[in-house]
């Protein structure tokens, strides 16, 4: 318990018959550290008026020279570097001392002469801890005993600048972006992705394995203050597309950079709308051609008929006469062709030559001694040679494999040897049927253009 002789001035006020004593040197409520008045740490200095009148000395002064009749204040630290400011009245020389608690560790002190403003700029305080302030006059027993006190956030000059450059920030999944630090005034760095730290290096490279949008930030710290900058990274998807295709045997399809005719798996890359490659994986199936067989060339007698059967199980039939049934009834000489389509959409064809059998005393072409076609097969040009033993009128017809007449020539009376060169190079390669019609009958021969 501190003791001090108090001086009482008795002021007499006449109020009726009463005399009222007034003690002008009563001890302030914050004379002891345990009674410290709490101050709020503000963003700016908001002064609170204090007074040491009636105060007593708590302990030996750290900074002053007088009797250190002191008063106490406390504050809760909301930052690591608050500023404490005390401004003395006309003859008050403020001394300010800072402790981590009542009776605790001394931290700092500052002093000034009469009427000065004293400032303690702290650093390294613990946010959330309560600190105490001791205030008294430099020489003791000032004629003016009041002062203003405040605690506020320190506004330090921050010379750190966070900055960086980067590669393209719109990328495809699985790609990386390089970030090159261009900051100034910093001693340490912290790279963050969506607020989560992933590196403290100066420069970094970041790989993005998931589609999405990411904020990459750089926090540059000078140990006093920090600055941050950021960039948005957009990661676009790539696609793997599985496909299956089929072709008919002998056909081709463009896959894997070329025309493919063999079954297998082929890979192609396409650039999407975001410039990201998509891989198309195609399983190619080669379907066999349907098997159609009208049989060997044959002959029928006059007034007879023959049923040609293309076989069951096809989805479409197309005969050279325009019909589309599975079978075709024929009763005249000619070349008959059928085109079939199976369930895979593959096509194939076959042809048969039907002749009218000779009657007694009549040959196939009765006046034809010989017929030669050469070369056969050919490359688009062939020669027909015939030898007749008597005059005859002659017609030469050439049909393609679908039964379409592509060449015809009517020749008057012919006797002896006759030859004709026929050019089919302007037509598609394949099987053609040459039909000779004369007064003595009809003959059909197969010609192959390859």
- Which term fits the overall shape? rod-shaped
Low-confidence stretches: 1-23, 358-363
> In the CATH classification, which architecture of the largest domain applies?
Sandwich
Task: Note the total helix count.
Answer: 0
What count of structural domains? 5
Q: Main β-sheet: number of strands, strand sense, barrel status?
A: 5 strands, mixed
Could you give the count of β-strands? 34
List the helices and strands and how they pair.
Elements: E1 37-39, E2 41-42, E3 48-51, E4 71-76, E5 82-88, E6 94-99, E7 106-111, E8 117-121, E9 130-137, E10 146-153, E11 164-166, E12 170-172, E13 176-181, E14 188-193, E15 196-199, E16 204-207, E17 212-221, E18 226-236, E19 240-248, E20 253-255, E21 258-260, E22 264-271, E23 277-287, E24 298-300, E25 306-309, E26 316-319, E27 327-330, E28 334-341, E29 347-356, E30 368-374, E31 381-399, E32 405-423, E33 430-438, E34 441-449
Parallel strand pairs: 1-4, 2-10, 12-18, 19-23, 24-29
Antiparallel strand pairs: 3-10, 4-9, 5-8, 5-10, 6-7, 6-9, 11-13, 13-16, 14-15, 14-17, 17-18, 20-21, 22-23, 25-27, 26-28, 28-29, 30-31, 31-32, 31-33, 33-34
């Amino acid at each position: 318990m501190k003791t001090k002789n108090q001086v009482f001035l008795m002021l007499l006020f006449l109020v009726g018959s009463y005399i009222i004593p007034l003690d002008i040197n009563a001890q302030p409520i914050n004379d002891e550290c345990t009674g410290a008045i709490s101050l709020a740490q503000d963003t700016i200095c908001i002064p609170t008026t204090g007074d040491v009148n009636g105060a007593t000395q708590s302990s030996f002064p750290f900074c002053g020279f007088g009797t250190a009749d002191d008063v106490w204040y406390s504050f809760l630290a909301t930052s690591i570097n608050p500023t404490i400011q005390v401004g003395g009245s006309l003859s008050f020389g403020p001394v300010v001392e800072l402790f981590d608690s009542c009776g605790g560790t001394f931290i700092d002190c500052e002093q000034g002469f009469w009427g000065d403003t004293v400032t303690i700029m702290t650093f390294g305080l613990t946010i959330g801890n309560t600190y105490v302030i001791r205030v008294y006059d430099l020489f003791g027993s000032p004629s003016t005993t009041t002062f203003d006190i405040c605690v506020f956030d320190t506004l330090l000059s921050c010379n750190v600048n966070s900055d960086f450059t980067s590669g393209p920030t719109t990328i495809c999944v699985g790609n990386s972006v390089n970030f090159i630090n261009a900051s100034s005034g910093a001693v340490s760095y912290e790279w963050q992705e969506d607020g989560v730290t992933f590196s403290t290096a100066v420069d970094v490279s970041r790989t993005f394995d998931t589609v999405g949008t990411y904020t990459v930030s750089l926090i540059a710290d000078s140990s006093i203050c920090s600055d941050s900058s950021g960039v948005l990274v957009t990661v676009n998807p790539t696609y793997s597309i599985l496909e299956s295709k089929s072709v008919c045997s002998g056909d081709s399809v463009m896959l894997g950079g070329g025309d493919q005719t063999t079954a297998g798996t082929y890979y192609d890359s396409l650039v999407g709308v975001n410039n990201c490659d998509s891989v198309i994986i195609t399983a190619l199936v080669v379907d066999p051609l349907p098997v159609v067989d009208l049989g060997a060339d044959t002959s029928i007698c006059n007034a007879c008929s023959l049923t040609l059967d293309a076989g069951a199980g096809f989805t479409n039939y197309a005969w050279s006469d325009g019909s589309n049934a599975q079978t075709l009834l024929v009763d005249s000489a000619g070349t008959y062709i059928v085109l079939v389509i199976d369930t895979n959409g593959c096509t194939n064809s076959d042809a048969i030559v039907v002749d009218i059998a000779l009657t007694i005393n009549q040959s196939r072409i009765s006046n034809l001694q010989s017929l030669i076609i050469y070369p056969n097969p050919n490359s688009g040009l062939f020669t027909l040679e015939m030898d007749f033993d008597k005059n005859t009128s002659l017609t030469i017809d050439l049909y393609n494999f679908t039964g379409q007449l592509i060449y015809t020539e009517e020749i008057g009376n012919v006797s002896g040897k006759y030859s004709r060169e026929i050019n089919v190079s302007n037509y598609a390669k394949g099987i053609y049927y040459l039909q000779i019609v004369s007064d003595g009958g009809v003959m059909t021969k197969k010609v192959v253009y390859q």
